[in-house]
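To whoever is on call:

I kicked off a structure prediction for a single chain this morning and the downstream step that reads the tokens threw a length-mismatch warning. I double-checked the sequence; it's 204 residues and nothing unusual in it as far as I can see. Pasting both halves so you can look.
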Amino acid sequence: MKQEHQQVSIATADPSALGLFGLAMVTLVASSQKLGWTDGTSFIIPWAIFLGAFAQLFACIHDAKKGNTFGTTAFGGYAFFWFAVAMSWMIQQGVFGEALAAGVDKHQLGMAFLGYLIFTLFMTIGAVETNKVLFMIFVLIDFLFLGLTFDSFGIAADFMHQVAAVAELGIALLSFYGSAAAVLNTHFEREFLPIGKPLRIFKK
């Protein structure tokens, strides 16, 4: 008896809209503290965990199902960043005990920011061939991590803190736009909100 094999493909929605929304929300809330509009990190932590981390992790997993290496790495990398930052804030505030809080060395966080700056730089190269909105988001993330790194090491700390703050607010605004474009362009089946074509530098 001859066996027949059928290949079944499952279509899934583009997860980037939710991932960008998560990024937009957490950077909006976090930038308000850096800009001096709000105080402390206690009420940033929930948004860091659920929007910055879980929403982007959701997008990462679903981009992986689509075979999108760039989207998987970007959303996954920044999801775990926000998990780690949220835990760092909790350690600093004594959630896990006074001994851990007393042993905080800000320079270790600076090393982590430096690592993410390196990560973001090569991801920015990849973003060149996505769309202009996403590329600009990555450029602003470069400035965010540049500012955070220098601030953590006490190098032109006040100025670099402001660089990080303004860049983070810019990330939030552009990510809201990118999320809206991903939803509305798909929903209306036309370019309702333009996002700009790839720059075509590395791919012809």
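Update from on-call: the warning came from a stale cache, not from the record. Cleared it. Sanity check on the structure: The radius of gyration is 19 Å.
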